[in-house]
Amino acid sequence: MVETKRLVLKPLTYEQLVKYTKCDNSLEEELNLNKTSRIISDELKEALENTILPNVADTSKNYLYSTLWTAITKADNKMVGDLCIVGEPNAKGEIEIGYGTYDEFQGMGYMTEIVGGIVEWAKTQLMVKSILASTEKTNVASFKVLQKNNFVKISEYECLLNWKLELLAKNDDKSKLENAPQVSDKTIEDKG
Asked: pLDDT tens for residues 152-162?
């Protein structure tokens, strides 16, 4: 679990992901949350069925790199959005993230805070050297989230922008350990 100024980011277990897919508030009940109106996009539904659920079920993998991290507001005790890390770090130490805010909570800075929280968590993971993300060129809000979290555009295609955030210079793991933030012990400030 990761805590930010306004949010708690909770990685969902396999059983919780199954409840998440039902959209019947059974997950909210289990987590003692207030109900949220959320709709699972076709794209997310496909990812849950074909990738996320099978990867989380695979006990040889660290589920934190495959599951949805749901964001819960401290003030209202509601789920406001989700972020997923798309697999364990590759040979270069890269992880990729995807994210979305529920419609009623868009434009409130939550996703900037969610991505910032995951960046702080990733800094404590020895194998993670950088974070990648892709956005549609037309999704200005999404790429502003990345810019506010210091991601740099690394490539551009007809419809997509690809982004990267380097977490470490020169793979200095010892420095990473010494300077790792205590994510579970302090609040991460919202970056805007």
From this structure: 999 999 999 99
